[in-house]
Amino acid sequence: MSTFPERRLRRTRRTPAMRRLSTENHLAAAQLVLPVFVKEGIDAPLPIASMPGVMQHPLEAIAGVVTDAADAGIGGIMLFGVPAVRDATGSGAVADDGILNRAIRVAREAARGRITVQADLCLDEFTDHGHCGLLAADGSVDNDATLEVYAEMALAQARAGAEVLGLSGMMDGQVAVIRAALDAAGYSDVAILAYSAKYASAFYGPFRDAVESTLEGDRRTYQLDPANGREGLAEAVQDIAEGADYVMVKPAGPYLDVLARVADASTVPVWAYQVSGEYAMIELAARAGAIDRDRAIAESLVGIRRAGADVILTYWAREVAEWIRAGKDLA
Ligand code: PBG
């Protein structure tokens, strides 16, 4: 009787029970974060055309969204504001009664410590030109002038009760400046999530719909070149040195190599953002009958985890938490 092949790797894949025994990576609801859009001046949820299944919520709905996410065991919600009025300096971002800061207050109250309240810290939703910072006279994004506004924005978010600030603007020095501003004002407990390796990506397309932002030009002078891996690592290392509590890679799916490199090198937890375009691709392909929706979602998320993410921001957080709870076979 032949013994070839000597090593039979299929042995451990024979039955579902055998396969479960060998599963290396699991999704946990506590490590999923749900992005939530809050729109000023509406009184009922509005669907986002390019993100089927995702809504813009009125402020009045936020308490319910938070309670529901907490009940589902999700680890956090990341709030994004859609203001009624925008201007050149994004003043709605720093105003205590700006839509995002109001939403943070409502969310923190509703959370009752059961789920973390997080906020996007960036100006693009609040500026009329759509850039993440202030523009200089020549039209370029002025790094250091922007840092001053970010510090104000961080303080407004901390006052409102945000527990994790998601620094997504890609300005140099933003982590250090915001950490110093928070500490000086007595907010040393507020954590910083640095969107460290944030790429200039076409996969943010549907997000523009979600926040109704139009961009003049592009973001390539501050977001990373999709061709560069080492630079993503450099950004994460720099952010950790500046005091980031968490670092993030974004988008997730097309940047799993960067995620793996950052995860290898990081001394803080690593997050990944499965962005709007990644969401839309799977939803629309499934609607066209091209792929099995649920399996594709599960595979995309476990792939992100396998690459090294501790925490994943995903628009499917709510649904996947339900799957996990029900013990659905995610394979
Ligand atoms: C910046 C920000 C963006 C996203 C999250 N934070 C947009 C951008 O930088 O262009 C995109 C998220 C997504 O596409 O799901 N406020």
From TrEMBL:
Gene Ontology biological process terms, A to Z: protoporphyrinogen IX biosynthetic process
Location of the active site: K198 (schiff-base intermediate with substrate), K250 (schiff-base intermediate with substrate)
Class of the enzyme per the UniProt entry, highest EC level: lyase
CDD domains: ALAD_PBGS
Entries under Pfam families matching the protein: ALAD (PF00490)
Binding site for Mg(2+): E235
Catalytic activity: 2 5-aminolevulinate = porphobilinogen + 2 H2O + H(+)
Cellular component per GO, a single term: cytosol
Keywords: Heme biosynthesis, Lyase, Magnesium, Metal-binding, Porphyrin biosynthesis
Residues that hold 5-aminolevulinate 1 according to the record: R208, R219
UniProt function note: Catalyzes an early step in the biosynthesis of tetrapyrroles. Binds two molecules of 5-aminolevulinate per subunit, each at a distinct site, and catalyzes their condensation to form porphobilinogen.
Family indicated by similarity: Belongs to the ALAD family.
Name used for this protein in its record: Delta-aminolevulinic acid dehydratase
Species: Microbacterium radiodurans
Upper taxonomic lineage: Bacteria, Bacillati, Actinomycetota, Actinomycetes, Micrococcales
Annotated gene: hemB
